[in-house]
């Protein structure tokens, strides 16, 4: 048995969905997300011996983020701002089709608002709200001081509130 | 964003503060309308993101390609194991926002309170929606309430005494928003309901449909503990909650 591989599978692979979700939200493109997350997992696999314990998730997501930044140059040239498609929007259990449609459109609108946040705000928001990460972990993933994480998060929430709730006030 | 304490309020809400710092932030929030609004907006956004925003799982082909690429040269294929099952999605937090409203009505009667608490507990047990925020840490559960309800319930862990904090939810008691702190005791669940006192007389201790309910008041809050655990155990739990400094 390859002990290193078993350890990697047990420690890193449970975070594959989180890695993919982050890649998808950062790149805003399913095609790019596939490439980014594959590249990131392979880099993590190669660098795994250098990982010295602790919580692996921020370490792994930092690699995902770096791969996205490196891929950024290519994507920018293509100048695509593909918004998330909604093939896997959560569908409510409600049997009322009108309500379902309304909820689906709400979800789509929220997705679009998040997708349009500037990168540095979108990433802290995703890490905090979807990955439940601590400020320290978010700082590790994004490579900025904790104070910057805090102010970006506050700004991200303010922007989101304005766009999401503002129109409902 | 003008309140100089806003980042501290946010840190409290995100479960980053504990002890004295958390208490200080809480005191500030009580007296700052801007921070209260921030808490409630941030809680609404957080619920909306968890419930409605898309969450993308790695597609199976991507997973398969990664697993394939990890295989060392010449190695036999590793046994498939269910590594994917442990990745929990977001907590299914319901969109019950803190309805901070004041009704100029008569305080609910004791009978109404007794009925309402039992109803709320059984309803939650039956539809399985007893927990909106699942956490055994009071650093997570307490701030969760801050953005969603205008009262600050005592949240503590009595693990050493056999009562384990498991989470919380927002519910309604006689039309009033109530914080519910959820504990487990062996196989039993204990719901601790906390709502703003309306000057009601509280019902006496009761047992109905196998659930024991104990009521008490403390400061400007009403409490009810409900469980199908042994009544002596429930009384022990209530003793611990009462002894908790607020």
Descriptive overview:
The complex is a heterodimer of chains A (169) and B (246). Chain A has eight helices and no strands. Chain A has helices at 3-11, 16-27, 30-47, 56-78, 97-115, 119-129, 135-142, 146-164. Chain A has 169 residues and is mostly helical. Chain B has helices at 6-13, 19-31, 33-52, 60-70, 110-127, 138-146, 231-243; strands at residues 133-134, 164-173, 176-185, 188-196, 206-208, 211-218, 221-227. A seven-stranded antiparallel beta sheet of chain B has the order 1-2-3-4-7-6-5, with helices on both faces. In chain B, a hairpin with a 2-residue loop joins strand 5 and strand 6 (211-218). The radius of gyration of chain B is 21 Å and the shape is globular. Classes of the chains: A mainly alpha (169), B alpha+beta (246). The interface between A and B is large, with 54 and 42 residues.
Compile the SSE list and pairings.
The complex is a heterodimer of chains A (169) and B (246).
Chain A: H1 3-11, H2 16-27, H3 30-47, H4 56-78, H5 97-115, H6 119-129, H7 135-142, H8 146-164
Helix pairs in contact in A: 2-3, 2-4, 3-4, 4-7, 6-8, 7-8
Chain B: H1 6-13, H2 19-31, H3 33-52, H4 60-70, H5 110-127, E1 133-134, H6 138-146, E2 164-173, E3 176-185, E4 188-196, E5 206-208, E6 211-218, E7 221-227, H7 231-243
Antiparallel strand pairs in B: 1-2, 2-3, 3-4, 4-7, 5-6, 6-7
Helix pairs in contact in B: 1-3, 2-3
Concise overview:
By secondary structure, chain A is mainly α. Chain A has helices spanning 3-11, 16-27, 30-47, 56-78, 97-115, 119-129, 135-142, 146-164. Chain B is of the alpha+beta class.
Strand percentage of chain A lies at: under 5%
Helix/strand-derived category of chain B reads alpha+beta
- Cα-based radius of gyration of chain B, to the nearest Å: 21 Å
Note the gap between the termini of chain B: 30 Å
Helix content of chain B: 25-40%
- Residue share in β-strands of chain B: 15-25%
What is the chain-wise order of helices and strands of chain B?
Answer: HHHHHEHEEEEEEH
Biggest sheet of chain B, open or closed, and with what strands and sense? Answer: 7 strands, antiparallel
- Can you give the mean pLDDT of chain A? 84
Strands of the largest sheet of chain B, in order across it? 1-2-3-4-7-6-5
Main sheet: strands, sense, barrel of chain A:
none
So how many helices of chain A? 8
- What shape does the CA trace of chain B take? globular
């Amino acid at each position: 048995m390859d002990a290193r591989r078993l350890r990697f599978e047990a420690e890193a692979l449970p975070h594959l969905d989180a890695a993919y979700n982050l890649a998808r939200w950062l790149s805003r493109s399913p095609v790019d997300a596939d490439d980014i997350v594959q590249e990131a997992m392979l880099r993590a696999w190669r660098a795994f011996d250098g990982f010295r314990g602790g919580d692996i998730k921020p370490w792994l997501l930092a690699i995902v983020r770096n791969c996205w930044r490196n891929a950024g140059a290519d994507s920018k040239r293509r100048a695509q701002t593909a918004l998330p498609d909604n093939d896997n929007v959560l569908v409510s259990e409600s049997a009322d089709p009108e309500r379902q449609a309304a909820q689906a459109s709400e979800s789509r609108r929220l997705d679009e608002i998040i997708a349009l946040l500037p990168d540095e705000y979108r990433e802290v928001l995703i890490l905090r709200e979807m990955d439940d990460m601590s400020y320290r972990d978010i700082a590790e993933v994004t490579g900025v001081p904790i104070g910057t994480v805090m102010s970006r998060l506050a700004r991200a929430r303010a922007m989101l509130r304005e766009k999401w709730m503002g129109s409902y006030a | 964003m003008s309140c100089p304490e806003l980042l501290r309020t946010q840190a409290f809400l995100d479960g980053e503060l504990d002890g004295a710092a958390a208490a200080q932030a809480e005191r500030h929030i009580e007296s700052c309308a801007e921070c209260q609004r921030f808490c409630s907006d941030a809680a609404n956004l957080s619920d909306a993101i968890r419930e409605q925003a898309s969450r993308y799982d790695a597609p199976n082909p991507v997973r398969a390609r990664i697993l394939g690429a990890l295989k060392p040269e010449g190695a036999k294929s590793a046994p498939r194991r269910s590594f994917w099952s442990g990745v929990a999605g977001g907590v299914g937090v319901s969109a019950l926002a803190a309805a901070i409203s004041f009704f100029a009505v008569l305080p609910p009667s004791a009978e109404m309170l007794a009925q309402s608490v039992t109803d709320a507990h059984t309803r939650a047990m039956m539809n399985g929606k007893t927990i909106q925020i699942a956490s055994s840490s009071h650093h997570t559960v307490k701030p969760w309430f801050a953005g969603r309800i205008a009262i600050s319930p005592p949240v503590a862990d009595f693990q050493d005494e056999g009562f384990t904090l498991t989470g919380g939810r927002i519910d309604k008691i006689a039309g009033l928003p109530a914080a519910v702190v959820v504990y487990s005791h062996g196989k039993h669940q204990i719901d601790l309901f906390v709502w703003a006192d309306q000057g009601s007389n509280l019902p006496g201790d009761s047992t109905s449909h196998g659930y024991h309910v104990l009521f008490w008041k403390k400061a400007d809050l009403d409490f009810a503990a409900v469980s199908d655990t042994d009544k002596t155990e429930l009384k022990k739990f209530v003793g611990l909650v009462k002894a908790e400094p607020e």
